Amino acid sequence: MTDSSLNQSVSQNGQIRTPIANNPLEWHIEDVIRHLTSIDQSLIIHAETFRKHEIDGKAFLLLNSDMMMKYMGLKLGPALKICNIIDRVKGTKKSTSLA
């Protein structure tokens, strides 16, 4: 007997949500937002900006701090935090742990 709920997580408001795909290129906009906020909850204030600019997994991996500041209106601090997360997703060695 297989229970599909074992492959899902429950959000804080009790809604069942599907897990984020392992391949970031397959992430939808909400997956990107969920990943960002799972690492740094303070980034939740930028969720609507990611929705507005339709930042899915493919776009997420192409972002850099200049783009986020110039076109998305983010300040330097959050842009750098997001760049660090992007580097970690890409598996680069230059990323810095923020823990």
Describe the SSE topology.
Elements: E1 9-10, E2 16-17, H1 29-39, H2 47-52, H3 57-62, H4 65-70, H5 76-90
Antiparallel strand pairs: 1-2
Describe the structure in brief.
The protein has helices at residues 29-39, 47-52, 57-62, 65-70, 76-90; strands spanning 9-10, 16-17. With 99 residues, it is mainly alpha-helical. A hairpin with a 5-residue loop joins strand 1 (9-10) and strand 2.
**SSE sequence, one letter per element:** EEHHHHH
Approximately how much beta-strand content do the residues carry?
Answer: under 5%
Which percent bin holds the helix content? 40-55%
The CATH first-level class of the domain at 24-89 comes to Mainly Alpha
What is the fold named in CATH at topology level of the domain at 24-89? DNA polymerase, domain 1
Task: Outline the low-pLDDT stretches.
Answer: 1-12
Mean pLDDT score, rounded?
84
The total beta strand count reads 2
Structural class: mainly alpha
| Amino- and carboxy-terminal Cα gap | 39 Å
CATH superfamily of the domain at 24-89: Transcription Factor, Ets-1
Total of DSSP H or I helical runs spanning 4+ residues: 5
CATH architecture of the domain at 24-89, by name, is Orthogonal Bundle
Rg for CA atoms: 14 Å
What do you see in this structure?
This protein has 99 residues and is mainly alpha-helical. The protein has a domain at 24-89: DNA polymerase, domain 1 (Orthogonal Bundle). 44% of the residues lie in helices and 4% in strands. It is built from 5 helices and 2 strands. The protein has helices at 29-39, 47-52, 57-62, 65-70, 76-90; strands at residues 9-10, 16-17. A two-stranded antiparallel sheet has the order 1-2. Strand 1 and strand 2 form a beta hairpin. The chain is globular. The N and C termini lie far apart (39 Å). 17% of the residues are buried.
